[in-house]
From TrEMBL:
It holds the Pfam family Phosphodiest. It comes from the Bacteria. This is Nucleotide pyrophosphatase. GO terms for molecular function: hydrolase activity.
């Protein structure tokens, strides 16, 4: 099919976790003027909703947006993939080689000859699947941020300084849990007087393994679920610093105070000075690599945050490796007697591993700056959310907008597919706290709901950077993979994407764990008694003879067992509320109605009931949550080829986005495309 191109330039502004329900609320309140202008100058549904594919989790949905194919067709059916034989084993799924569908960017680059950029698209973009010189790809190995799949050189540091501390202590790999409104650093320091290290959770084991993770076999317990659901623990190096009068310095004022902190995994000690201003108020900290130096490498005022600090840390061989990291002084007493300080993870400068071609990395760094690294701090503490987390993402948004608009101003590309993770990035850390957190009420309003609003206003500021390009011939698609829902009911462990979901299936008698000498469940499955397991989000596998190594279910009994499991799931009630937990449960062959089914899906596919869904990934895409949240993704289009001020009643599906872009640009549909152009919003 050959069509007249209605536009020569397209940019997809993808924002992970962008919820149309919240976006419309804030837009109608006048708090998202850029989104309002995009809708006025373009087309969308009245509710801004895009009907999401399922499952409602990042890798499948960005792959659907790129290919026009549903998850059952392209084969990416959860954040992780399941081994159909070793059914308790998971494989990392953000790998383009796992997808069975052609992405639209290959069509642009190979056949249309269009210069195409795929910018951190976490759905079958890396490694590049075309060797066309027209295709440039940046990362996509994970959703959180560019180069976040590369191990950090040095862990985040939480430093508490006090004159009451007799000698400095370095506590590696500790876990911080916020308590109430007090600063997380004070609380964590009090909790760890003995220097105990926290046990690494199942979740952190998976994440630490990065994009090479394969073959994990583990179970989710109630404790694991709590950690995953809230992401409340912050793993970092804790330093308890003794504040003393400055002594032995090449140059230090008489009234200066000093402390020592540790970097490079504790291998390197560094000194710092706490200094007063002209009024005698201690309001700044200077950081040095040794007391012999006369000039600090960084000076920070009380409350100041500094991004992209150029630094070095030592590797295991003792060599200095260049890095960039963020520093922030959260608190500093006016008399210099105590402070709270955060130093972020160290990201190695010069890593062009996930830039194709490599020259693109140099161009970005030389013209815009180093790839930012975000603070990974505790979302349960409102101080850290307000003063650290949101400003950190503001910095990242500005950097990314500068990168993309630089390419657009200089006509580097005709087509850009881009992804931003700020809403999802902060949402998983504090969205759930928006529900009935009475202890954080401020002026009769829930503080965490205010932070939801601020995150959306931040996204609007990001989108505003692209508005001028509507007048320069660019067509813009603003979309997302899913929304972020604030959960109302907690404690039911089913639909968790990071492992085997044990408790409900064990209670129903289908999954049995090996017992220890005291009769307690271990994290090992007893395959001689286990008939089925729930693994990842939305998937249940039968332990089938002839297919699975330890199978005990006869193939002739599979159909009836599936019937029994589905019936039991519908009948299951939350022991705390008495409410039904499962919304839909079907056999694999019937999951085609949801765009799923096939060899990459479980024998049974299920979705949780509204209220029990956890942020996203375990429910129907149309479900709503507390505080005006929903799981649905968003869609707005504007620019050449798109009708202006058009409100359509059409149900726009996620699989329709790629064919709509293809129709606008006059190229063929991707080979496995199942969607259709949204004709109702196209100008011709």
């Amino acid at each position: 099919m050959k069509r007249k191109a209605l536009t020569d330039k397209v940019i997809v502004l993808g924002v992970d976790g962008f919820d149309p329900r919240l976006a419309k609320k804030f837009m109608d309140q006048g708090k998202m003027p850029a989104l309002k202008e995009f809708t006025g100058r373009g087309s969308a549904r009245e509710d801004l909703v895009l009907l999401g594919a399922m499952p409602t989790v990042t890798p499948p949905l960005w792959t659907t947006l790129a290919t026009g194919a549903n998850p059952g067709t392209h084969g990416i059916t959860c954040f992780f993939a399941s081994d159909p034989v070793n059914i308790d084993t998971m494989y990392y799924n953000l790998d383009s080689r796992q997808s069975k569908a052609e992405p639209l960017w290959n069509v642009f680059a190979e056949e249309a000859g269009k210069k195409t950029l795929v910018w951190h698209w976490p759905g079958s973009s890396w490694p590049p699947t075309s060797d066309s010189p027209n295709l440039h790809v940046v990362d996509g190995t994970q959703p959180s941020g560019i180069n976040n799949g590369i191990p950090f050189l040095d862990l985040l540091k939480v430093i508490t300084g006090s004159e009451k501390i007799a000698s400095s202590q370095y506590l590696p790999n500790t876990s911080h849990v916020a308590q109430g409104q007090g600063c997380i650093i004070d609380n964590a320091a009090d909790l760890m007087e003995d220097g105990d290290q926290a046990e690494t959770s199942v979740f952190r084991k998976v994440i630490a393994a990065g994009n090479h993770a394969k073959g994990f076999q583990f179970s989710i317990t109630e404790q694991d679920e709590c950690e995953i659901e809230a992401l409340g623990n912050m793993v970092c190096d804790t330093i308890k610093a003794a504040i003393k009068p400055a002594a032995g310095w090449a140059q230090a004022p008489a009234e200066a105070k000093e402390f020592t902190f540790f970097v490079s995994g504790g291998l390197e000690r560094r000194p710092a000075l706490i200094l007063p201003n002209e009024q005698g108020v201690y309001d700044s900290i200077q950081f040095y690599k040794s007391k012999k130096e006369t000039d600090p490498y960084l000076t920070l005022k009380r409350g100041e945050i500094r991004f992209d600090v150029r630094d070095t840390v030592k590797n295991d061989q003792g060599e200095n490796v260049p890095c960039n990291r963020n520093y922030q002084v959260l608190e500093l007493a006016e008399d210099g007697s105590k402070f709270n300080l955060i130093i972020n993870n160290a990201s190695q400068v010069g890593r062009d591993d996930y830039f194709h071609p490599k020259s693109l990395y140099r161009e970005v760094v030389e013209n815009i700056g180093n790839v930012p690294v975000n603070f990974r701090v505790n979302g349960a503490n409102e101080i850290l959310v307000r003063e650290t987390m949101l400003p950190s993402w503001e910095n990242y948004c500005n950097w990314q907008a500068e990168c993309l608009t630089y390419f657009m101003k200089n006509n580097k590309y005709d087509i850009i597919f881009s992804h931003l993770h700020n809403l999802d990035g902060v949402g998983h850390y504090f969205w759930h706290y928006a529900c009935n957190q009475e202890e954080w009420k401020d002026n009769n309003e829930l503080t965490y709901q205010q932070y939801q609003e601020e995150a959306y206003c931040q996204t609007d500021r990001y989108l505003s950077k692209f508005l001028p390009f509507l007048d320069q011939g660019w067509t813009m698609i603003i979309t997302s993979d899913h929304g972020l829902l604030t959960q109302e009911y907690h404690g039911v462990i089913l639909g968790e994407i990071h492992g085997v979901n044990v408790p409900v299936m064990a209670e129903l008698g289908y999954t049995v764990m090996v017992k220890d000498e005291k009769g307690r469940d271990t994290k090992e499955i007893d395959w001689s008694k286990t008939r089925a397991i729930a693994i990842r989000g939305d998937h249940i596998y039968i332990n089938l003879k002839g297919r699975n190594p330890h199978g005990i279910v006869e193939p002739a009994d599979k159909y009836e067992l599936e019937t029994q499991i589905i019936s039991d799931l519908y009948n299951y009630r939350d022991p705390h509320t008495g409410r039904r937990v499962i919304s839909v449960a079907v056999r694999n062959k019937d999951a085609v109605h949801f765009g799923m089914g096939g060899p990459e899906c479980g024998d049974i596919v299920y979705f949780t009931e509204e209220g029990f869904n956890k942020i996203h990934a375990d429910s129907l895409s149309t479900q709503w949550g507390y505080a005006d949240t929903s799981v649905s993704p968003l869609f707005v289009a504007a620019g050449p080829g798109i009708k202006e001020n058009c409100v359509t009643e059409r149900v726009i599906r996620q699989a329709d986005v790629a064919p709509t872009i293809a129709a606008l640009t006059g190229v063929r549909m991707p080979a496995q495309c199942e969607g259709a152009p949204v004709y109702q919003i196209i100008s011709e």
